[in-house]
């Protein structure tokens, strides 16, 4: 299309002036979108900046490029190439506030680098390798750092810090959002108050009969499959899922008895993988939720939770379970809105089952690969709970057993359930946060990766990559260590670097129940069974099978159990 006689009514720009105009708009666009590095931008301004404006700016350029289509092609190509160039140059330039921190060049430029790394499920290995190469502070995104030192633990979980931007990706378009996704400390604390009541020492004491019943059922299932090859990780997963179903909805799951016949456990695990990818690029989340398949999964899980919640509410319970506390059934002020309980119910099942399964599976793997440690643990259990005098169900006694607790701590150290994605950020309006000698500007996300910290020689020496429960014991330095082939080791263990349950206002609210659960399961199974890896199983496959999808997903743990007592 060639303009005719009215071309004098339009401003006439040279090609150079057209280019300057479009590059200027690209710079303005960058300034606008810079504040949406993590949070999703609004739809209509986005369309205006990225689509409408470049088309409008092509109009004065028609005279310089003869036809409308050539002008539009030039405007869009120059606009997007300029926007990309400005973004990349700024992010790697000395003008960026995180410029001085080392890290992979592509990580500085784009979060798609993190997405590609997360897609492998091996994020924890990649983070460990980066910290080994670059040091305790690594730039892992345009506005994101990974800090592996105790200063980050102390300051990162302190006042003035909120939950990190990755939690934006865990806010599906269904209100209300789960308590774990609430980033602001005040709102988080308000919603968490019911959770705190559900996990007091008194409340956990009321859960013990349900826990004992489920642990006994687990033993019965394992005894029925003794002397044959089984996947121990699978049975532990069924146990934790059943127990959390009891705690949240008064039962009804019965995976140990019936298996995952409805496929809901598998469905939850696949959903966790999708969310783990979305969290690397939070601004993509609103787009992803508009995809019917992705939204359909959330709707299905929510419908499932609604069904169980209604059944529990109608049925009632003689036990003050977690549902009782979340629903606020004792209060004269009235019940908590059911949609909140439904949303948090899903959280309780996933968070309470997957994390404990991971921890228990790892502990039994390490005990089988370290028979001397297993022998020492069994001796402590048998001495405390003689086999012919009853099962190790007394939680107070279990809590006082040094070696049992050392074994659990060491398992959690080497295989934390959330290996990398413990993220915090300075609260809006604070300007930033001082972490050790470094000032972290507002708008910067910091990851405090437990997997890296827990294997750091500065905090756990010697042999930070080795399973040595004795490092958690108070004992003379000249005492022989029975679980390793080394004598007279003096351990240096910095408990402040041990964060398997995160920390601060958003730490794991159910950690005390999880520890009680782990003590009882480990003590009973070690006393009841001799364990060995199934014939032909390569022990190295276990750690190779571990995948980081925010929460660790383990592979099979093929074992053969034989009854002892």
What percentage of the residues does DSSP assign to strands (E)? 5-15%
Compute the average pLDDT.
88
Class of secondary structure makeup: alpha+beta
Total of helices: 23
CATH superfamily of the largest domain: Cytochrome P450
Give a short account of the largest sheet: 5 strands, mixed
Q: Given the C-alpha coordinates, what overall shape results?
A: globular
Q: How many domain units?
A: 2
Helix percent reads: 40-55%
**Gap from first CA to last CA:** 91 Å
Instruction: Tell me the number of strands.
Output: 14
Q: Any overview of this molecule?
A:
With about 575 residues, the protein is of the alpha+beta class. It folds into two domains: about 90 residues, no CATH class; about 375 residues, Cytochrome p450, CATH 1.10.630.10. It contains 23 helices and 14 strands. It has a five-stranded mixed sheet with strand order 1-2-8-5-3, with helices on both faces. Helix 17 crosses helix 20. The N terminus is likely disordered.
């Amino acid at each position: 299309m060639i303009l005719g006689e009215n071309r004098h009514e339009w401003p006439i720009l040279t090609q150079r002036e057209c280019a300057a105009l479009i590059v200027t708009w690209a710079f303005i666009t960058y300034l606008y979108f810079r504040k949406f590095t993590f949070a999703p931008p609004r739809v209509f301004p986005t369309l205006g900046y990225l689509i409408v404006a470049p088309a409008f700016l092509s109009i004065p350029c028609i005279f310089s490029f003869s036809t409308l289509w050539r002008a539009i092609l030039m405007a869009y190509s120059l606009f997007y190439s300029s926007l990309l160039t400005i973004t990349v140059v700024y992010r790697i330039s000395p003008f960026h506030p995180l410029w001085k921190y080392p890290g992979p060049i592509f990580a500085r430029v784009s979060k798609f680098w993190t997405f590609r790394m997360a897609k492998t499920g091996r994020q924890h290995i990649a983070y460990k390798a980066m910290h080994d190469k670059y040091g305790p502070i690594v730039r892992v995104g345009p506005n994101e750092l990974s800090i592996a030192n105790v200063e980050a633990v102390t300051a990162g979980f302190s006042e003035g810090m909120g939950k990190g931007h990755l939690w934006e990706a865990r806010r599906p378009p269904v209100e209300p959002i789960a308590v774990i996704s609430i980033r602001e400390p005040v709102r988080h604390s308000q919603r968490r108050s019911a959770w705190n009541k559900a996990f007091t020492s008194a409340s956990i004491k009321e859960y013990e009969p349900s826990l004992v019943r489920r642990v006994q059922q687990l033993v019965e299932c394992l005894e029925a499959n003794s002397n044959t090859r089984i996947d121990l990780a699978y049975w532990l997963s069924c146990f934790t899922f059943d127990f959390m179903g009891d705690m949240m909805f008064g039962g009804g799951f019965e995976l140990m008895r019936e298996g995952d016949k409805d496929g809901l456990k598998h469905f939850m695990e696949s959903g966790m993988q999708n969310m783990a990818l979305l969290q690397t690029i939070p601004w993509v989340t609103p787009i992803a939720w508009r995809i019917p398949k992705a939204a359909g999964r959330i709707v299905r899980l929510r419908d499932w939770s609604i069904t169980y919640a209604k059944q529990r509410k109608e049925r009632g319970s003689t036990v003050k379970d977690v549902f009782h506390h979340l629903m606020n059934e004792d209060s004269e002020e009235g019940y908590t809105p059911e949609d909140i309980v439904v949303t948090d119910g899903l959280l309780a099942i996933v968070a309470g089952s997957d994390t404990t399964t991971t921890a228990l599976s790892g502990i039994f793997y390490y005990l089988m690969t370290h028979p001397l440690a297993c022998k020492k643990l069994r001796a402590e259990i048998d001495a405390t709970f003689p086999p012919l005098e009853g099962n190790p169900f007394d939680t107070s006694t279990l809590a006082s057993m040094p070696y049992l607790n050392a074994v659990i701590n060491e398992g959690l150290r080497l295989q934390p359930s959330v290996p990398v994605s413990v993220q915090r950020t300075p609260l809006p309006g604070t300007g930033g946060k001082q972490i050790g000698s470094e000032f972290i500007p507002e708008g910067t996300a910091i990851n405090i990766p437990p997997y890296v910290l827990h294997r750091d020689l500065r905090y756990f020496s010697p042999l930070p990559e080795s399973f040595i429960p004795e490092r958690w014991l108070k004992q003379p330095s000249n005492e022989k260590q029975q679980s390793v082939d080394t004598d007279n080791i003096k351990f240096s263990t910095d408990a402040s670097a041990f964060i398997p349950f995160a920390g601060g206002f958003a730490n794991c609210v159910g950690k005390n129940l999880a520890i009680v659960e782990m003590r009882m399961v480990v003590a009973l199974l070690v006393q009841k069974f001799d364990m060995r890896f199934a014939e032909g199983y390569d022990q190295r496959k276990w750690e190779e099978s571990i995948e980081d999808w925010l929460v660790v997903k383990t592979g099979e743990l093929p074992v053969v159990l034989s009854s002892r007592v």
